[in-house]
Amino acid sequence: MDLHFLLGLTQHYALPLTFLVTLVSRAGLPVPASPLLVMVGALSIASGELALGLLLAATVGGALGDMVWFIAGRRLGRRVLSVICKVSLSADVCVRQSETLFVKWGGLSLFAAKFVPGISAVAPPLAGALGWSWFSFLKWNIAASLFWALVFLGLGALFSNELDLVLAVLAQLGEGAVWSLGALVIIYLAGRVIRRRRAAEQSENMPRISVAQLRADLESGRDPVIIDVRSAEGRMLDPRTLPGAYTISLKEIGTAASILLPDRDIIVYCSCPNDVTAVAAAQQLRRMGWTRTLPLAGGLEAWFEAELPPLMHPVTPATT
């Protein structure tokens, strides 16, 4: 297939293609929107066309894609993050990094999130789950979408003179080289999917304790050690906690030895997709010898969604 024909086709349908690709990319699908913006930016300069339409198409498409997940975050809370992380092939670390950005930068975090894989997909639903107002999100997100589109279209315009050189090199290499490059990209994505599935299987195979069982244990006086393994930023964004919980983040879980006894049950919880952080903490504690460690199914959200009455035997809040 002629590369010039493909580029001509791309140029002819540049506006709808730019809108569609940015829309589905911002909606969470692993579609390479940024390279497309660079390419159409270069083509628009090379053909003498104005790039204003492309800028508008990319901005509107990106903003609408983000809005879908913002609405989902407002309606479903943090539960929607488990879906977006699966679709975007991003690990739970994307949620923790987004929380850090939100705490440090507020609305400006949406600008940074546009350029960081994983975080870019998680930021809109997280903003919704945290209760951002419509006006605040629209204001910051439209500005961030405009800036993101402008950067990549601008890069394409800046390097438009090199477009013919790239085409000449690809023509010399032949279609085989192009297809080989595509195959390598597919292999890379397949490898990420396989690693994610393995991690998901390990997480699913980890036994958990339900909210009802944990409450029963607290009422019966079994007095399990409860550990909140959320990051400091996550606790700042949502200061709620379980009765008597210690606050020890995942990266500090090795220090938990000073508060743990071999004859006590240990319950770890987070507010993350699929309890990933809590599962990781439980696995680490089990390797350290505390085999009676379980993650709380559903984490912090499940505990408060259960709307349980106050404990008849209140647990003294823990300190760290």
TrEMBL record:
Q: Where is the Rhodanese domain?
A: 220-312
UniProt keyword annotations, A-Z: Cell membrane, Membrane, Transferase, Transmembrane, Transmembrane helix
Quote the subcellular location field of this record.
Cell membrane
Q: What is its main location?
A: membrane
| Bilayer-spanning residue ranges | 50-72, 140-159, 165-190
Single GO MF descriptor: transferase activity
| Lipid bilayer topology | Multi-pass membrane protein
Q: Which InterPro entries match?
A: DedA_domain, Rhodanese-like_dom, Rhodanese-like_dom_sf, VTT_dom
UniProt source species: Silvimonas terrae
Q: Protein name, please? A: Membrane protein DedA with SNARE-associated domain/rhodanese-related sulfurtransferase
Query: A single GO CC term, please?
Result: plasma membrane
